[in-house]
Amino acid sequence: MKHFILLISTLxxxxxxxxxxxxxxxxxxxxxxxxxxxxxxxxxxEKGLEKVESTYSDDFTNVLPIEPFSxxxxxxxxxxxxxxxxSDFEEAEEKAVxxxxxxxxxxxxxxxxxxxxxxxxxxxxxxYYTKRFTPALESFExxxxxxxxxxxxxxxxxxxxxxxxxxxxxxxxxxALLRLLxxxxxxxxxxxQAELGVVMAYEQTPDSIEQRIAHLEASLEVVDxxxxxxxxxxxxxxxYRKQGDIESSDEAFDRxxxxxxxxxxxxxxxxxxxxxxxxxxxxxxxxxxEVDHLIFVRKxxxxxxxxxxxxxxxxxxxxxxxxxxxxxxxSIQKSEQDIHQKMIAxxxxxxxxxxxxxxxxxxxxxxxxxDVSKNxxxxxxxxxxxxxxxxxKIVTTIDxxxxxxSLLKVASLSEGDLNAFFxxxxxxxxxxxxxxRIKELKALAAQxxxxxxxxxxxxxxxxxxxxxxxxxxxxxxxxxPRKDGNWFVSSLxxxxxxxxxxxxxxxxxxxxxxxxxDVAYYTSQINRDPKxxxxxxxxxxxxxxxxxxxxxxxxxxxKLAVEKLEQLLVFNPSDDLKMGAYYRLYKIxxxxxxxxxSNNYKQKLQEEFPKSSFTKLVNNVEEVTVDEEENEYIKCYxxxxxLYLLNSFDAxxxxxxxxxxxxxxxxxxxxxxLLHAYIVAKIExxxxxRKLLEEIKLRYPxxxxxxxxxxxxxxx
Length: 716
Prior knowledge:
This protein is an all-alpha fold. The protein has helices at 2-15, 23-55, 86-103, 116-128, 133-146, 153-166, 170-181, 188-202, 209-222, 227-243, 246-258, 264-277, 284-296, 304-317, 321-333, 339-355, 359-372, 379-411, 415-452, 464-478, 487-516, 519-523, 530-553, 558-570, 575-591, 595-608, 613-619, 626-645, 649-662, 669-684, 686-699, 704-715, and strands at 106-107, 110-111.
């Protein structure tokens, strides 16, 4: 009987060949395709799509792309970043390929299995979602060419157009979609997809907000529920706000909130966007109450980081900057998995510090943003990197100036003031240690309470945690036993040796602790040698001069530049720095319309440095011919270069620093900057050289020296 059933089954399978155009064959392969392979493939695809829609981390500070994909909107995503749901889409592709290979009935150039076109569509969509747009395009083209009368032909045209947009054929894709929308045969779902496809095409075109709004509205008229409808309405709200139409923006966000089967994250964010629309119109308390209520709702726990950030925004708009900062920090702490939110909060903190002129803190926050980013090529990271790099030299110079100021200040104190200064320092150390001990005791007490709450069965040998801790403590004290014949004596000798070593360490620690609290130890470290203090003063003066120029040139902060340069003049610097400071102050005051101070520094230049290049600049007198100017520059440059060739790098560095100041406001500045970089490379090495080359690129763009700097950076 078994052999008979096996024979019948074999004959049945043989009769269902893909090469025979019979009703049984067509029905069999269509049924297997629909209810087995293709069914599983569609399930895998839907699973991947759900992951894309629910887990993709959107950047709500910018207008969202209409499709929530990691590869969309910017092509700079790292190659090793896998698209969301890739394994599911790969499984769907595998099932689609299997359907085509095993169940396609292409007989005499005509496909007899009516479901193979669906398999090709699934194949193309799966490739599309794994960033392989060209292979996806091939699948869609195959359907259009070979199945022109298929029921899903219009949907295929939409997917082909979207693939063309991603491969750079934006106009072709847009025209195809607009032609398709003129048809009256489209289902609501396909019409929605086509409208959103046109929006996607217009995202690549500047000044296209009105067109995007029109097609978003059209898509929502056709389908007003579901995930894509809620996202479309959200983007619509953002675009209306960008146009300044706050009323329409509010209405769009209300549509998101009321969209059936829409994602909850869009609904919650829409409530926050409505607050942002009116953040300057109503009282702070009113908005804070609304956000506090949202924080209280248990359903919003996964979004607590965004709600805390929103509180920060509200406080920032109310000029409560410290409170705003505290909530941005809390948002970062709650954003372990949400990289986008963490980056946004770091940028906000950096911008606040930047506005407060706290450039070191600003750079620190910007660097933190760069560190947490998973995509170094994103537009935000590139922009922040530029901002951070522009602060690099300024922050370094500020630190150097502060350090030199501190050294000079401490060295200038009398013995009594010096002792009092260090006693205050020691008192601060003791208080900090006391606070740390109190903190540790509180933590220990809390741990003990938690242990006691474990119940009556927490006796040592029944408590795995206590057992583990006890074993570790035992091994720490007695070490692991040696596995040899004299293990007891050996361990005893080891213990004695360990005790002696520990005693030495304790003595060393005790000595360090004693010096830490000893005023005499600190006062003995003060170097009051006149040569040392003179070198520190010169270094400090150069720091102030560089900061004054950096504040003026890079940050456009004229007030800060004036403060630093006028403070520099109080220190009675060298003539080179003094004349440079006079000229810069003359120029700043002239630009700000302060004629009195401008004329004052002009007069100082004329009286103290009548023959300097800076004086000739303020006088607008061309006393020196071009040839003489050129000869002077050539002679100076050759002198420095000769010192460089003779390996007298310190002397060359001193001369080039003077030349940089002298020619700071001329076209010669980049030339001396590059020569300075060569000299520093010999003294400090490759890393310092590269830093200076980067600085030349930023400070003197579009010059021959900047090009040379870039060539060096590319080659080394």
